[in-house]
Amino acid sequence: MKKIVVLLALLLLAGCQKEEKKPEADFDMFVFSFATDAANFSIKFTPGDSIYMKTSPVDYFYSVLTEEKTDSVYSIIKEINFAEYDTVYTNENIVDGASFKFYKAKNDTINWIYVYENKTPKKLYEIADKIIELQKGQRWTPFIGKQDFGNLDYIELPNPVN
């Protein structure tokens, strides 16, 4: 009888192990925009697994992230401490190069950082690279309708070809 009670107690303890806490979204909307001569896009992340891409003023796409990628997105976004950085990093002497922008909205609070120079803190480039890598391999489906991508100032998406 004691063995059965001990066995049941062990099974109960094993079943009640604390689950690993998953990252949660600390944003209502997060947009990452990237522009070079060869590629221009904005990706919108919202709490959940759906993401949206905008490649021109009229071209929208959506995709669904795996649970693992969703957790990665939340973790990556949490790495950006907006209060730690300037809002704009530019260099007027650069005429061609990569630019990117982080835009985060939570309730009525909006934070953003725009980068178009090479003297930007390295951490911002590392975060941008992580987001670019994360979206690779996603299956993008055309989306009929519009999506709010927040303030895309500084990011120039190409105009549609007529």
From TrEMBL:
Q: What is this protein called?
A: Lipoprotein
This chain's source organism reads: Flavobacterium beibuense
